[in-house]
Amino acid sequence: MTHSSSKTPIELLPINEVAARFGIKASALRYYEEIGLLEPIVRRSGRRYYGLFELRRLALIQMLQEIASMSLKEIVTIIHAGSEDRTARAALEERISILEHQIKSAQLATRYLNHRLSCSRENPFDECPVLARELLDRMRDAGIVVPENGDAHLLAQEIRPDAKAALEAGSHRRRAGRPRQSYDCR
Questions:
Q1: Residues forming beta bridges with residue 50, ordered by sequence position
Q2: Which of 38, 79, 94, 97 could cysteine-pair with 32, CB 3.0–4.6 Å?
Q3: Is the per-residue pLDDT at 104 higher than 80?
Q4: 141 near 135, Cβ under 8 Å?
Q5: Cβ neighbour number for residue 132 with a 10 Å cutoff
Q6: How many of the other CB atoms lie within 10 Å of CB of 152?
């Protein structure tokens, strides 16, 4: 059996070749076996061999680790569970919640970074009213008491006048879980 071409039909692959093709160490495959995630289809002379079913399972394990950021413990739970298993469903729901939060955070970061690239202020950290509003909101979220009306004058002693004016004109409260819709400071 030759494996030099990726189009060669695969019957059985030895552990070292599986490890090389999937970009992991053979010790990881042995560990997956130890925790019940992956079993070789056969052993010959003490050497583990894997078939298509096992390779498909390995692809699933890697996908769940890389794309869904799941731990091996979580993967063991969901792989061995039926579709109605409450523990597996809870693990999946928790992971979805975590991913949704990460997506929102990444969208916020992208929006701010794009704004930062286009901000016309010479020194955006000191002069950008958008950043100034965001920082005040974050301070409030951290429990720092910042008066609702006229709060800009208390903090804006260190903020430039155009940022102070934008702060006074803009909304001072950010709703939890609601990202700002605009990062336009012109």
A1: 13
A2: 38
A3: yes
A4: no
A5: 25
A6: 24
- Per the model's pLDDT, the better-predicted residue between 159 and 52 turns out to be 52
| Residue among 87, 134, 125, 118 at smallest CA distance from 186 | 118
Beta bridge partners of 47: 44
Q: Which CATH class is domain 13-80?
A: mainly alpha
Please give the distance of CA 93 from its chain centroid, rounded to a whole number. Answer: 15
**In the prediction, which pLDDT does 150 show?**
44
- Look at the block and give the residue holding tokens 């910042």: 146
Q: What is the DSSP string of the chain?
A: ---SSTTSPPS-EEHHHHHHHHTS-HHHHHHHHHTTS---SEEETTEEEE-HHHHHHHHHHHHHHHTS---HHHHHHHHTS-TT-HHHHHHHHHHHHHHHHHHHHHHHHHHHHHHHHH---SSHHHH-HHHHHHHHHHHHHTT----SSSHHHHHGGGS-HHHHHHHHHS---PPTT---S-----
- Rg of the chain taking only CA atoms, in angstroms: 27
Domain boundaries, the chain: 13-80, 88-169
